[in-house]
Prior knowledge:
The protein is an alpha/beta fold. Helix content is 23%, strand content 24%. The protein contains six helices and ten strands; from the N terminus they run E-H-E-E-H-E-H-E-H-E-H-E-H-E-E-E. It has helices at residues 25-30, 73-77, 93-101, 119-128, 144-153, 176-193, and strands at 12-16, 37-41, 65-68, 84-91, 109-114, 134-142, 162-167, 199-205, 208-213, 230-234. Strand 8 and strand 9 form a beta hairpin. The protein is elongated.
Amino acid sequence: MTDIHPPATLSVLKIPLNCVESPLFPSVIASCSSVDELWLYLTTGETYLPAIDYLPPDILPNLRSYHGPHTYSPWFTKHRPLESVDFVLSAQPTDLYTSIGILSDKIKSFSCRINSFDARLIATIHTSFPSLEHLNISGTSVDIDGLFSALSIAKSQKDLASIEMAIETGSSRLTNNWALTVANMFLSRLIRAYPFLKHARLVCQPHTSVVWVCLKEKSRPTVTIDNLELRIEKEESPYKTNAIWDSFRFRS
């Protein structure tokens, strides 16, 4: 068996999920105490999530940023000084609540992908992370009524400065004018709910977003969106992620 000694200054660790089944995985991950950012990813074409049977309870003591499936997060995030979490695989909102509940209440950036929208999700996120500054919810679009319901039951989040979400436009053929009109409706709700919001990205279609950047201080909660603060961004092709390198290769 080959001994693996990661550099003492290693700060970012990216591991394909098929490696967690290796008998070497617990000892390797335990030797990475300097790591503060962890990425667990599925390689192209894979859908299988292998089970983790055991990990030492004190691994990655300095972890501040986690990117991976929510089902794996308890192994890596519990009692860690986390500031950023990204649940990278799509899930039902109700399946996320337990994973959210064990995270640090110091989280400043939270991202998740969902299969369906549940108004309680935003309330749960705000209650769990009172100092949240950035929120990204993707995977399914939210209509204006769903957003209103969610914000009506959520605690006030004064620190939130940036938000990203997919929105329902009510039209399969989206024109720029209609995208801006719908975005204004959503932004009026968001700005009233988040008085210090400075940036929003509203995804109208898979490759079309309306981006709002606050250019000046406004009188809140009464606010008028300046068209100069809005822009439409379009992606030329779908975003694809591929591992450029594997942090470790396990060999016996």
